[in-house]
Amino acid sequence: MVDVGGKAITARTATASGRVVTRPDVVALVRADDLPKADVLATARIAGISGAKKTSELIPLCHQLALSSVKVDFEFTDDAILISATAKTTGQTGVEMEALTAVAVAGLTLHDMIKAVDARATLTDVRLETKTGGKHGEWTRAGVDTLAEPVGVRHQTAAVVVASTAGAAGEREDTTGPVISEWFEARGYSVDDVTIVADADIASELSRVVATAPAVIITTGGTGMSPSDRTPEATSALLDRELPGVSEAIRLRGLAATPKAALSRGVAGTASGTVIVNLPGSPGGVKDGLAVLADLLEHLVAQVEGGGAHE
């Protein structure tokens, strides 16, 4: 088995699909629950959920996962029963195989239920549709495949993500995001957006923003030791290269003003060509961080894009 012990713990989801092709009259029987065996869809749904939970027993070398949710749904066309399964967990490895196994087992159960009236029914097109979480973030079959073909970053574009549970709930005014946005614009960057999310949602939001391929993402908030502070973990899960010198320089700058700066766990690095830097959530911490980046950002981005001198 692959050792995933060093990977960051992130929220992970996967959705898979498949279809059972059969005759129109059989589809009608399933929809009307008029087959000799028990409730066809309910039985197939339970089978799919059970299959997802037993994936590590069925597929060699799959990790045992603590699934937080498995959902199996069905739709109909004239000659097919469409299956969709979504699996969720919070852990160090993905749930793609669990979602795929749920579809496969649900489909086989459907075949077993209808074989008496259509032995020629076919389970086909079992495939992964979407996944989120982990180092590579979001992947969708219909969109950008960030695992195989990372999109080129968009030059002179930036995004700002604020991790603040109170701010996301409208209970506290955000004073850091607009400052960072104005700082970017003063340097000729086009800022896609300033988003404010609860700390619990920082991993999924960062994955979404990375998939849009801005040149730079600056986050603020969620870098301390509070139980809800998860920004460094969410960022590290996406990074392909770290920039420890940048985060250490930001902490050093803050230490000149307050010893509490040593408690910041912010990280920096690149993810598929996008530079990501974590800043603390305080106005002072943001000011210190931007002061450090003012002397580094242009050269850093040029290097990442392949055009800067290696001094």
SSE layout and pairings?
Layout: E1 10-21, H1 24-31, H2 40-53, H3 55-58, E2 67-77, E3 80-91, H4 96-114, E4 122-132, E5 139-140, E6 154-163, H5 165-168, H6 177-186, E7 190-197, H7 202-211, E8 214-220, H8 231-236, E9 241-242, H9 244-255, E10 268-271, E11 274-279, H10 283-294, H11 297-304
Parallel strand pairs: 6-7, 6-8, 8-11
Antiparallel strand pairs: 1-3, 1-4, 2-3, 4-5, 9-10, 10-11
Helix pairs in contact: 2-4, 9-10
Description:
With 311 residues, this protein is α/β, with parallel strands linked by helices. The protein has 11 helices and 11 strands. The strands form 2 sheets. It has a 6-stranded mixed sheet with strand order 7-6-8-11-10-9, sandwiched between helices. A 5-stranded antiparallel sheet has the order 2-3-1-4-5. A hairpin with a 6-residue loop joins strand 4 (122-132) and strand 5 (139-140). The chain is elongated, with a radius of gyration of 24 Å. The relative contact order is 0.12. Mean pLDDT is 89; it is low at 144-151.
Keywords:
alpha/beta, 34% helix, 11 strands, 311 residues
User: What share of residues are in beta strands?
Assistant: 25-35%
Q: Characterize the main sheet.
A: 6 strands, mixed
Mean pLDDT: 89
Secondary structure class reads alpha/beta
Helix content: 25-40%
N-to-C series of helices and strands? EHHHEEHEEEHHEHEHEHEEHH
End-to-end separation in angstroms reads: 41 Å
Compute the number of strand runs.
11
Task: Write out the strand line-up for the largest beta sheet, numbering strands in chain order.
Answer: 7-6-8-11-10-9
